Amino acid sequence: MATDWEIHGLAFGNCNCDYGCPCQFEADSTHGNCTGNGFFSIEKGHFGEASLDGLKLGGIYAWPGPIHEGKGKCQIVIDANANEAQRAALLTIARGEEAEPFSNIFCVYAEMCDTHFEPVFAEIDFEMDLDGRRAKVVVHGIGRASGEPIIGIAGNEHRAQIRLPNGLEYRIAEMGRGRCDFDGNVPIHLDDGYAQFNEAHMGPNGVIG
Length: 209
Prior knowledge:
Blueprint: E1 5-15, E2 34-47, E3 50-51, E4 56-63, E5 72-79, H1 84-94, H2 105-111, E6 113-116, E7 120-122, E8 124-129, E9 134-139, E10 143-148, E11 150-151, E12 157-158, E13 161-163, E14 172-182, E15 188-203, E16 206-207
């Protein structure tokens, strides 16, 4: 690895699995196939000398079977506000490059996808309340995703967390319910499935903290 990098901020994603997502436990996906998205709001970050502060990054994915069987499709979305150097940096991170193999979620997803579409540069609106388990992502011209708390049997907002001490994406994530509508090269339309809200802090050797 030639370039030192680090991103620290918030992340939100949702997929077609049931609440909790069996993939978090290295089990087969709920419906056999996997479709989902993940977006990052970088509060502080850098790639070499290039600052990544305040930028957004995301990906939309689809696999015909479980993620570990590969053959997926990947659409990377990069903040239109990024300059040329920042765009190159974010794309490098999103493709799992300049990192130890399989050390973070970007590496895994990149390796498990056969089809990598050209990145889309778009305005990305990102709002998230980590403790409140609420998020809203709008990718202008492509679609949107949102998340909210799981509603319990009594109508209460149910709170649950997953802790992964050796996780490739996070150490602790809040669980919720999510939906999304994305068009384009990887169209996915999901309603009331798995969603996660977490702090995102990683570098070339994986999750930090």
